[in-house]
UniProtKB/TrEMBL annotation:
<keyword id="KW-1133">Transmembrane helix</keyword>
<dbReference type="Pfam" id="PF04011">
    <property type="entry name" value="LemA"/>
</dbReference>
<comment type="similarity">
    <text>Belongs to the LemA family.</text>
</comment>
<keyword id="KW-0472">Membrane</keyword>
<dbReference type="InterPro" id="IPR007156">
    <property type="entry name" value="MamQ_LemA"/>
</dbReference>
<protein>
    <submittedName>
        <fullName>LemA protein</fullName>
    </submittedName>
</protein>
<dbReference type="InterPro" id="IPR023353">
    <property type="entry name" value="LemA-like_dom_sf"/>
</dbReference>
<keyword id="KW-0812">Transmembrane</keyword>
<dbReference type="GO" id="GO:0016020">
    <property type="term" value="C:membrane"/>
</dbReference>
Length: 183
């Protein structure tokens, strides 16, 4: 009888250990997604200033500027938990931002404007931080996904409703490139 109780206690402790590991992994993935969201918000907040600066020099590039604003609004409208939708929207926004930065080549006065240069440096820094946050999130999602799919933790995960997290990936290869700036 004591042996059976000891085995049951060990089994319960093992399930608790696995459950707590799954909770920790899920929380790490959610915290990592929050990091991406913060960086994307910083980029979105920078865009209006960048657009206004460019407008002063390249007012007739209105369609490009309007496209960036529209894509920014679309990216911000994606629901918080929709990782795939956010990746697509942010990829399109990144492409459009690259086109705005490329406008500086056609406007030497814009390229020399101190405000534009500061905004450009800030955007480059934020893009790098987004990339680091994306890697961190994908690592946390990977760790959770391994636990959700591997035996025996998959038994506990299925029982308690733990699900895989999607990776924050950009489908279009051209979207993966950080906008390059040349002087």
């Amino acid at each position: 009888m004591f042996t059976i109780l000891a085995i049951l206690a060990a089994l319960v402790l093992y399930v608790v250990f696995i459950y707590n590991g799954l909770v920790k992994s899920r929380q790490m993935a959610e915290e990592a997604w929050s990091g991406i969201d913060v960086q994307l918000k910083r980029r979105a907040d920078l865009i209006p200033n960048l657009i206004e600066t460019v407008k002063g020099y390249a007012g007739h590039e209105k369609s490009t500027l309007e496209e960036v604003v529209a894509l920014r609004n679309k990216a911000q409208a994606v629901p918080a938990g929709d990782v795939e939708g956010r990746a697509v929207a942010e990829g399109l926004l990144g492409q459009a931002l690259g086109r705005v930065i490329a406008l500086a080549e056609a406007y030497p006065d814009l390229k020399a404007n101190q405000n534009f240069l500061e905004l450009q440096r800030s955007l480059e820094t934020i893009e790098g931080e987004i990339q680091m946050s994306r890697r961190y999130y994908n690592g946390a999602a990977r760790d959770l996904n391994v636990k959700v799919e591997s035996f025996p933790s998959n038994l506990v995960a299925g029982q308690f409703g733990f699900a895989k997290k999607p990776y924050f990936e950009i489908a279009n290869e051209a979207d993966r490139a950080v906008p390059t700036v040349k002087f």
